[in-house]
Amino acid sequence: MKKILVIYYSQTGQLKDVVDSILAPIEKNPEVSVVYEELKPKPPYPFPWTAYQFCDVFPESVAEVSCDLQPISCDMDENYDLIILAYTVWYLSPSIPVTAFLQSMQAETIMHGRPVLTIIGCRNMWLLAQEKVKQKIKKNGAHLIGNIVLTDKTNNLVGVLTIAVWMLTGKKDRFLKFFPHPGISDQDIKEAGRFGENILRAVADDRFTLTQTDLNTRGAVTVNPALLIMEKRVSKVFKIWSDFIRQKGAAGDPKRSKRVRAFMVYLITAVIVLAPLAAILASVLKIVMKDKLATEVEYYTQNSLIKSE
Ligand SMILES: Cc1cc2nc3c(=O)[nH]c(=O)nc-3n(C[C@H](O)[C@H](O)[C@H](O)COP(=O)(O)O)c2cc1C
Known about the structure:
- This protein is an alpha/beta fold.
- The chain is built from 13 helices and 7 strands.
- The protein has one domain (about 1-220): Flavodoxin domain (Rossmann fold, 3-Layer(aba) Sandwich), CATH 3.40.50.360.
- The strands form 2 sheets. The chain has a 5-stranded parallel β-sheet, with helices on both faces. Strands 4-5 form a two-stranded antiparallel sheet.
- The structure holds flavin mononucleotide.
- Flavin mononucleotide (FMN) binds near residues 90, 126 and 163.
């Protein structure tokens, strides 16, 4: 009997739907047992978020500051053949509960020496979050063998708006009955079961021959050069804002509320004014930096860790 441990954190259930779809072919196989470990922050993060709460998790997300988690319930000494880490992205970083898990002693115990496959379900900016996750997987003595990413495929600006409305109202409807549904499309979630077939074949085979190239031929990872440029620029500004807010206090500290609100104004301005300008700049850079970008795209499409951001 092969054993897979799935560790995940999903607020609205979108990422869990992705996980369920990917694992459906595996669940049908009696030779493989799947154990699910849901990460539960203590206290839970709110959903829907108020605008302030949404911005108050920003500094710690970027600075990778842990939160408290409820105790892990899976058997940590079990000899898992594969660990699947499914996570969402908060501010170009893994969500805080996932960061908390990856930085815990339990993560090292569970992961050490084991193959890990990551599943990301986010809006569309995940490249630098995955670099942070790659580093922590390595630090925990595990090796990353595959990555599957599902994103919202609508236009970047439309996606920001529709996700923001979803996060702040809790409603996953079409905003004003005009905009598309927020998040990952139902069709993409439904079709994600194809990746489960690859995983199942690899788990059944003692040599565990799962390659990112195989997964990529089925559409596991697509890197958009324009978003790569934008993500790198935004992450530098995020770091400055994160440090600036954290100087005034930790999460929830009223002393930092003015700075959190200032960040809120920046975020709205950045989305409305700066993002369209950045998109134009990115399309110019895409032409000017064609070769450098091609190398970078190749790097982010695979799983080794050759540089730190
Ligand atoms: C505070 C916060 C920040 C987010 N930042 C990003 C981001 O930087 N990049 C991205 O692609 N998605 C971002 N998202 C969207 C999430 O990755 C995810 O798609 C959404 O929260 C739904 O996930 P769920 O399965 O936990 O409900 C953010 C969501 C939240 C709540």
